[in-house]
Amino acid sequence: MSTLFRNALVVAMDDTNRSRPFRSDVLVVGDRITAVAPDLPVPDGAEIIDCTHRLLMPGLVNAHVHSWEALFKGRYDNLPLELWMLLSYPILGLEPMSERLIYLRTLLVGMESLRNGATCLLDDVIESPTQSLTALEAVFRGYEDIGIRANCSGNIVNRRYIDTIPFVDEMVPAELVTEARAVAPRTTEDYVQFSKEALTRFDGRAGRLRYVIAPSGPQRCTEELFVAANELSREHDTTFHVHVLETKMQAVTGREFYGSTLVEYLDSLGVLTDRATLAHGIWLTDSDIERLGAVGASVAHNPISNLKLGSGIAPWRALLDAGVNIGLGSDGLSSNDSARMFDVVKSAALLHKVTQPDFEAWPTADEVLWAATRGGARSARLADQVGAIAPGRKADLVMLDLNALNFTPANDVARHLVYVENGDSITEVWVNGEVVVRDGRCLHIDEDAVLAEVRELGGEYLHRYAEIEQRNHALMPHFRAIYQRCCREAVGINRFSDDERAWVGVL
Ligand SMILES: [Zn+2]
């Protein structure tokens, strides 16, 4: 089966053209792009799509998302990460979500992603309070059914949340700590077995789903687990995806737990390689950044989530200058509060302009589009598979209407994609050579039925969830005090936009 996209305005994101648009035909045979050139001959039986008024670009790659949060969009505000997590990933009293709701939740993420032009995502699938293979199966089934390309992790963590926070024993009442420590974390051996089984069951499914290795964070896993996870990621050539230095508290945690930065700690375990992707990478020192560049690691940059949780501003220019690959992510649907990648693209382009007056160091539209396509692809270990319109690549394509409001009148096309486009101009989305979105609707699922079922089952779940949140509020004042203490500590760098002296005295 083949499709010829005739005379499209192509933003290929290939090595030669990057975001510079050109007119061309694009031929897709099966799941791959086989030719990109003007006036291609029509193969026998090919479907021809006239693209005279269409822009064709590679699907966006969401380098970091958590589908767990899909029911919590629009629920919280003005809480920093560690306090927000008490509500969005509660540690007291939570029951597992039903497999049906996990499946539906996954469809919400897939729907919002595809409709907004993201054809590939990395879902760090955290399941609270704990994860089973059948729960993960529901996630894979969701992405399989909706037609997106997905890289999904198991939730690799073997320290209790309470034990990942500094100063807990001196600052949280003993009875609360005891309650939070009641459930034993799983062992390294458990997680290795879980991941091996997940690789067997899920990896390669539908020709577009992968199981990937994602130890949650250096303070959230034991050394032994990190080393074992890295070995699995090497054996199966998957990304090694880990949250690192998202917040100032985590910078303090590195010093308190390991007497070093968290990047130095990871390096000492031998797990910093070109497979490593650091989610966030905000509170990095200059020498951390140098280390990441030297090994060819990636950072999944999540500007909207970082703004929402007040985590600080990642050092965009310093990372690129050091040779670190940057992908763009939405992060979870509670800290964002959506999976719309065009929002993320625009925010990434805007955020860093307030960090310094040297306007020549600000992100360009081309760099941001690169991060949103090629950067994310490389971070997911799909560098030669997706992220560009070029022969041999998977046919993951987004088609936009050049006659739409967002392109009228049309000026610099790359700048339109970064600053003007919000997904409204998308007419079709293709994944693996198959059309999955047309006229704003996902074609492989009954969207209305899914939303109706989420309203019913999700509504019931959230009703019960409110009681769990209430219970976890008991920890809030103590975590608040720890947060404030960490903010007062000097860590040698400042990633807030305000001068440290302006707020240290206030807290
Ligand atoms: Zn995350």
Key words describing this protein structure:
507 residues; Urease, subunit C, domain 1; TIM Barrel; 9-stranded mixed beta sheet; 18 helices; globular; binds zinc ion
Can you put this structure into words, describing what you see?
The protein has about 500 residues and is an alpha/beta fold. The protein folds into two domains: about 1-55 and about 395-440, Urease, subunit C, domain 1, CATH 2.30.40; about 60-340 and about 365-380, Metal-dependent hydrolases (TIM Barrel). Helix content is about 40%, strand content about 20%. The chain has 18 helices and 17 strands. It has helices at about 80-90, 100-115, 135-145, 170, 175-180, 190-200, 225-235, 250-260, 260-270, 285-295, 305-310, 315-320, 340-350, 365-380, 415-420, 445-470, 475-490, 500-505; strands at about 1-10, 20-30, 30-35, 45-50, 55-60, 60-65, 120-125, 150-155, 210, 240-245, 275-280, 300, 325-330, 395-400, 425-430, 435-440, 440. The strands form three sheets. Strands 1, 2, 3, 4, 5, 14, 15, 16 and 17 form a nine-stranded mixed sheet that branches. It has a four-stranded parallel sheet with strand order 6-7-8-9. The chain has a four-stranded parallel sheet with strand order 10-11-12-13. The longest helix has 26 residues, at about 445-470. The radius of gyration is 22 Å and the shape is globular. The structure holds zinc ion (ZN).
